[in-house]
Amino acid sequence: MNTTNSEFEPKIVAFVCNWCTYAGADLTGTSRLKYATNVKIVRFPCTGRIDFMLLLRAFAQGADGIIVSGCHPNDCHYTSGNFHARRRWITFRGLLDFMGIDVKRIQYSWVSAAEGAKWADVVNSTVANIRELGPYTEYKKVAEYLDKEDYNG
Amino acid sequence: MDKLRERAAALLADGTVALVIGYEEGTNKPRPLFCHTAEDAGKLIYDSRCINNLAVYLTKKELMGTEKVAITATIPVLRSILQLSVENQLNEEKILVITVTEQGELKEFAGFAEIESYIADFQLKLSGKEQEIIEKLEGMTREERFEFWMKELSHCFKCYACRAACPLCYCTKCIVEENRPQWINPWAAPLANIEWHINRAMHMAGRCIGCGACGDACPLGIPIQLLTRKMMEDLGPEFGFVPGQPSKNGNALSTWKADDKENFIR
Ligand code: SF4
Ligand code: SF4
């Protein structure tokens, strides 16, 4: 961690569901609320579709932090996608922690289509949090060979 | 042992079963034995050294034809059979399960329901060494845990013996052989190894019955059984599962409850 925290601009990938959080993030924009620009949003049909491998891949490709967000419980467009997702997150988080992967770098949240301000807040606080934690060097080191080899996965 | 051999021979001789899966003496330790004739049954053994999880063969098409198959089952094998049955992988009619009780009696199960009540008396316990590693890991900082696992997993050379030994790894096409898209790189390298083991563990979540066959099979002695084992211990109470007792309510990740507890989603 040579970069001092003030110089470090965290790279954050957000995996969001189409129906709630994506619409919520859209509302943040149309409401002209300013928020941190460190986030790249990837839109999914449902949180139930967000495979844990996508999160690992984001880390491998250089993300310092991740946001996963979808509809509040009981608000899923497909009724139970977010309940399934929540189970998977609980399971995944426990496993990652046992393996020493930094679970503090993954922010899970529920942001509805009406919560534009909450989205800005989730992003801003995640960015602040990751800035504090610094670059995710451990996982990058593990993934190093991806840069060296002719890799285009 | 004689009783087991006699019974197996009789079952094969009168055509009740076409195959008896059991153990025979191996070079250093017992190995699986497939008896097709009454004569083969003479080689059968059954004792505490028999640790291969024979249930792994019950989902093999090349062994499970139209004829009935008998299997000599240890406690972990009995657990595996129940879990496989919950997952609709076994035809109860085609499998005759035999065990040897602690008193040395031969016991034939009338059906899977009987197995369930039989194994209810057997608690699933971590071995002393496993307990020790888990405690050691729990006492470490996160960074130290990462270092521990990276060091362990860096030995993995992707032989997939752990997968082959696991009775519950029965998919005919595994994600590691999937190459469009290729989620997990086939070579042995730090990232590819960690991704393989995270995947293996996630796919076993709430299904692993804690037999330890994966760890026993690893030629490099990587304690990978602990990954699924730890999950089982943690998720059991959370989702209402009892480690080692297969649940009829679906596996941990295919079901959910509206009030599943967590404290990290904001
Ligand atoms: S302990 Fe290992 S081999 Fe046994 S069921 Fe669990 S993952 Fe499979
Ligand atoms: S058995 Fe051991 S070396 Fe082989 S793939 Fe599994 S963990 Fe890796």
Automatic annotation (TrEMBL), chain A:
InterPro entries, per the entry: MvhD/FlpD (IPR003813)
Domain of life where this protein originates: Bacteria
Keywords: Iron, Iron-sulfur, Metal-binding, Oxidoreductase
Domain F420-non-reducing hydrogenase iron-sulfur subunit D, chain residue ranges per copy: 12-134
Keyword Iron-sulfur: yes
Pfam families recorded: FlpD
Record's keyword annotation contains Oxidoreductase: yes
Name under which the protein is recorded: Heterodisulfide reductase subunit D
Organism: Bacteroides sedimenti
UniProt gene name: hdrG
Automatic annotation (TrEMBL), chain B:
Residue ranges constituting the 4Fe-4S ferredoxin-type domain according to the UniProt record: 199-229
InterPro entries reported in the protein's UniProt record: 4Fe4S_Fe-S-bd, 4Fe4S_Fe_S_CS
Keyword set includes Iron-sulfur: yes
Keyword terms of this UniProt record: Iron, Iron-sulfur, Metal-binding
The keyword Iron is assigned to this record: yes
PROSITE patterns noted in UniProt: 4FE4S_FER_1, 4FE4S_FER_2
Protein name (Swiss-Prot/TrEMBL): 4Fe-4S ferredoxin
Naturally occurring in which organism (per UniProt): Bacteroides sedimenti
